[in-house]
Specification:
The chain is α/β, with parallel strands linked by helices. The protein has helices at residues 3-16, 19-25, 30-44, 60-85, 100-117, 169-175, 223-231, 241-249, 279-291; strands at 49-51, 56-58, 92-98, 121-127, 141-145, 153-161, 163-167, 189-192, 200-205, 208-213, 219-220, 236-240, 254-256, 261-262, 265-272. Keywords: DNA-binding, Transcription, Transcription regulation.
Length: 299
């Protein structure tokens, strides 16, 4: 068995979802494709597919092996192109992790433009409000908002994100409009628990600094959930400007305390030291630094 050939066949079967489709694509009989997969499973010591009469699905081990195969074959493809051209090509799979709202509103809209520039890259965008384990999840780079703990990782600054205090007209009519940071003590403030010191909001005005200990009857580790709670009039939040930009335009929420500047949050691209020579990861980071500043809420 040629391991690389079997990996290539396996990846195509996953992508096409059919042994027969891959057999036609590679101009080989379906029994030959099945034989390749059986030999691969024998080599690995377990099944990669959970077969049924209706569909073809990966086992958990098969899913992990598929991710590694994509990475390995992408590196082989990149190495081949590099040898031919004298420099590494921006090509192959790129796995990017990002917070849910930021990924949806700020990263996803830029991917089409990036792929126009680098059509040989294949992006897998993974959205989660929890910090992924880059090595365990085989992630090339992650976007992090807030202070980054870089133990064993490399962090590259992408800038900062502006924050404002937001509330719905319904809430403000019921509870009043805070005019000074100190007045937040009388409001139902919704804290975003994934940030350090989420229960203290900091502002500046000129040379003066203000730190307010907030109180409220709800917190959340999801910015999407906080947005929904603000929209329905439950409380008031200190959130990135991009999270509410569309809602402000539609009059669904409004910012308050605009005379005061809330502490901005750093935005970073984080990757393992093993990925620091990845041409596609570096190209994506450079692209983000070039384009993110045009989005709402960028400093």
């Amino acid at each position: 068995m040629d391991l690389f050939d079997s990996m290539r066949v396996f990846v195509r079967v996953v992508e096409r979802g059919s042994f027969s489709a891959v057999a036609r694509e590679l101009n080989m009989g379906q029994p030959a494709v099945s034989k390749q997969i059986r030999a691969l499973e024998q080599y690995l010591g377990g099944p990669v597919f959970a077969r049924s009469t209706r569909h073809l699905a990966l086992t958990d081990q098969g899913q992990r092996f598929y991710s590694h195969c994509q990475e390995i074959l992408g590196q082989v493809e990149s190495a081949t192109r590099s040898f031919a051209s004298g420099q590494e090509q921006v090509a192959g799979p790129l796995r990017v992790a990002a917070p849910v709202s930021y990924g949806r509103l700020c990263i996803a809209p830029l991917i089409g433009t990036f792929l126009q520039r680098y059509p040989d890259v294949r992006i897998d965008l993974r959205l989660s409000d929890h910090n992924e384990d880059l090595l365990m999840e085989n992630i090339d780079l992650a976007i992090r908002i807030g202070v980054v703990k870089t133990e064993g990782l490399v962090a590259v600054s992408l800038g900062t994100t502006t924050r404002r205090v937001y509330a719905s007209p319904i809430y403000l009519e019921r509870c009043g409009v805070p005019l000074e940071p100190s007045e937040l003590a009388g409001h139902n403030c919704i804290g975003f628990t994934l940030l350090e010191h989420y229960d203290r909001w900091r502002f500046t005005r000129g040379a003066h600094e203000f730190e307010i200990a907030i109180t409220g009857n709800v917190t959340s580790n999801s910015s999407e959930a906080i947005r929904e709670m603000v929209l329905c009039g439950l409380g008031i939040s200190l959130s990135p400007q991009w999270l509410f930009a569309a809602d402000v335009e539609r009059g669904r929420v409004q910012s308050v305390l605009d005379r005061y500047k809330a502490t901005a949050l750093p935005v970073s691209a984080v990757f393992s030291r093993e990925r620091r020579h990845s041409a596609r990861a570096m190209a994506f980071i450079d692209f983000l630094r070039e384009h993110l500043h045009v989005l709402p809420g960028r400093a």
